[in-house]
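can u do me a favor
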């Protein structure tokens, strides 16, 4: 279960990093020329899809569901009244 949580944590950090890098690439002050040439549209779309995959699919629902499934059944139960 710790390995699964570590994977989730790594994906969260990776998704945040990709988001920041992608946002910084797109930020150019008005009236100035970017220092580097913009990547082709296909690369931009692929980058956006990668960010979405990490930020939405993986740590929003996939890993939490896997974590819940990995939790062992308790050895004792709390009585319900």
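np, heres the sequence
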């Amino acid at each position: 279960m710790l390995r699964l949580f570590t994977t989730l944590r790594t994906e969260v950090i990776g998704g945040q990093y990709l988001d920041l890098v992608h946002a910084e690439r797109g930020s150019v002050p008005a009236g100035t020329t970017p220092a580097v040439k913009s990547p082709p549209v296909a690369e931009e779309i692929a980058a956006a899809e990668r960010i979405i995959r990490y930020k939405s699919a993986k740590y929003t629902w996939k890993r939490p569901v896997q974590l819940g499934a990995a939790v062992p059944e308790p050895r004792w139960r709390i009585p319900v009244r």
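Helices lie at 2-26, 41-70. hope that helps!!
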